[in-house]
Design brief:
- This protein is mainly α.
- 48% of the residues lie in helices and 6% in strands.
- It has 17 helices and 7 strands.
- The strands form 3 sheets. A 3-stranded antiparallel sheet has the order 4-3-5.
- Helix 5 packs across helix 6, helix 7 packs antiparallel against helix 9 and helix 12 runs antiparallel to helix 13.
- The longest helix is centred in the middle third of the chain and has 49 residues.
- It is elongated and about 115 Å long.
Length: 529
């Protein structure tokens, strides 16, 4: 059932060849006998057939012929690709050869550099500056050498063309001194000398460029050898030859997290005495007296309507019905949104009448202190500043006044808080509508309000106007920001976007100080000298 072609017997093959050789003559009986004898001699013996059968593979798996099939497919693919390349022509049908493209690139590089000499000089400078630039230097030097060689060829062709050779060697002697004759062109000694000088100059330039390429290639080969040696050593040293070795234990006091922190120049005692906090906008560590506090407070629970009238007391059935309605609305609309309010602490700006007036009810930035507690605190602080009695309508004033002695003066509001510098640049970064740094730190991202953000920025701008600073052109230097602020060695810097230098009035390192070491906290009382 196999369709494989069977081999032609040797007798038939010999007869066919003999017939063609004798131009159709019939084989003789003697020839047939001789061919049969040769076949019997070439026929394998029984021992040879047995050995071949024992050594042959009896496997019927498909993977036996995989390699043969793969070789066949690869050969077919090669033949197909070769035929395709022959049909397309050189460079796969491209109109420009790679050599012509490289030559054009070399010419463009030389033109952009300002000539062959400038390009070769740049390659030499790169190679001398750092050996890591040798690859680039070799590319530039090779381009310069190619352009120099091309200019030399063009100059040679131009010199040969300029020579006015005679049209025939049989010209009459009377025409030797003619204006366009060969002898007349040789009389122009000045032009010949100039052409010779140009040829010598271009030949010398081409030789120097070729020598430069050779020198750079030698240096690159040495550097690559050194790089390979270094990489081999590094790979060998990176191996863990003792995999069963126990991981070395690091003591807690030796861990990086427990190492002394730079704290931007502060130490713990000075931070406690000054009340240092981190600005959420620029991440500078400054005293609280130089920062504006933004506090988070719960939304007030109102016990009446907008006019202050108390609600009627509902019966038990009505309360149950309202409770059921609320539960249904909660199931329908999902969990309620964040019930927090964010406001500027009036205590942090209590030293300025202008800033306090901005936070009261009719102020420009009243939205920054919209919470009842913040508004009452602002009115009380302004009343104290103006030596007037506080408004008796404010119930919160009594609690604020009673607890003012036991609390930091800058903290007029209770709750989680963040701090912002008295600069408009920091406020714009902290209350940006997309980043929302202050609200993220307070964990009230859902309570972001654009009116509050604008009012907070206005307050910071007014504070910087009081300080005589303009931060409208400030840009934070991102290279000085990153990581934990407490691990930074110095304050992040603000740059002027017009000059790129440090912005005027942005440096506040003069506020940073470190307390001297003493027996503070050791139980030993300090002695006054």
């Amino acid at each position: 059932g196999s369709l494989r072609a069977r081999p032609i017997p040797s007798r038939v093959a010999s007869v066919g060849v003999d017939a063609r050789a004798r131009a159709g003559a019939r084989p003789t009986i003697a020839g047939e006998a001789r061919e049969e004898a040769d076949d019997s001699a070439a026929r394998p013996t029984a021992v040879a057939r047995l050995t071949a059968s024992l050594g042959a593979s009896t496997s019927t798996r498909r993977d036996v012929h995989v390699d043969r099939r793969a070789d066949t497919k690869a050969a077919r693919r090669e033949r197909r690709d070769a035929k395709h390349a022959r049909e397309l022509g050189p460079h796969l049908g491209s109109a420009n050869s790679p050599a012509s493209v490289d030559a054009a690139m070399s010419r463009e590089m030389a033109a952009m550099a300002g000539g062959v000499d400038a390009l070769a000089r740049r390659a030499r400078d790169l190679a001398l500056a750092d050996e890591r630039n040798l690859e680039v230097a070799i590319r530039l030097a090779s381009a310069a050498a190619d352009v120099a060689a091309e200019e030399l060829r063009d100059a040679s062709l131009e010199a040969e063309t300029d020579l006015d050779w005679p049209e025939s060697a049989s010209s009459p002697p009377g025409q030797h001194a003619g204006a366009g004759s060969f002898y007349g062109s040789l009389d122009d000694d000045a032009g010949t000398a100039a052409a010779r000088r140009r040829m010598l100059t271009r030949r010398e330039r081409a030789q120097l460029c070729a020598e430069s390429v050779t020198d750079l290639s030698s240096k690159l080969s040495k550097r690559l050898l050194h790089d390979e040696w270094s990489a081999t050593l590094a790979a060998f040293a990176a191996r863990d030859w003792r995999r069963d070795r126990k991981k070395p234990r690091v003591r807690p006091k030796d861990r990086r997290c427990n190492q002394p922190k730079a704290r931007q120049g502060w130490n713990k005692r000075a931070m406690r005495e000054t009340g240092v906090r981190v600005c959420v906008g620029c991440e500078r560590m400054l005293p609280t007296t130089e920062l504006i506090r933004v506090a988070r407070m719960a939304d007030p629970v109102r016990s009446g309507d907008a006019e202050g009238n108390a609600f009627d007391v509902d019966t038990e059935e009505e309360e149950k019905e309202k409770k059921k309605k609320k539960e249904k609305e909660k199931e329908k609309n999902g969990p309620s949104k964040c019930k927090w309010s964010v406001a500027i602490d009036p205590g942090s700006v209590a030293g300025s009448d202008a800033l306090l007036r901005m936070l009261v009810d009719d102020g420009v930035a009243a939205a920054a202190a919209k919470h009842p507690n913040a508004a009452a605190a602002a009115r009380a602080a302004l009343a104290r500043r103006s030596s007037k009695a506080p408004d008796p309508r404010d119930d919160v004033v009594r609690s604020v006044r009673s607890k003012s002695e036991s609390r930091r003066p800058t903290n007029a509001l209770q709750g989680r808080a963040v701090y912002v510098c008295r600069r408009g640049a920091c406020a714009r970064a902290a209350f940006h509508p997309k980043k929302r740094r202050a609200h993220r730190a307070l964990r009230v991202t859902g309570a972001f309000n654009s009116s509050f953000a604008a009012a907070a920025v206005d307050v910071c701008v007014a504070a910087e106007v009081e300080d005589g600073v303009d931060s409208s052109r400030w840009v934070l230097d991102r290279t000085s920001v990153g990581g934990v602020p407490g691990r930074a060695a110095a304050h992040p810097r603000y740059l002027d976007e017009r000059t790129g230098e440090e912005a005027e009035g942005s440096d506040q390192t003069f506020l940073v100080w470190a307390a001297e070491r003493s027996d503070f906290g050791t139980g030993v009382a300090e002695k006054d000298e």
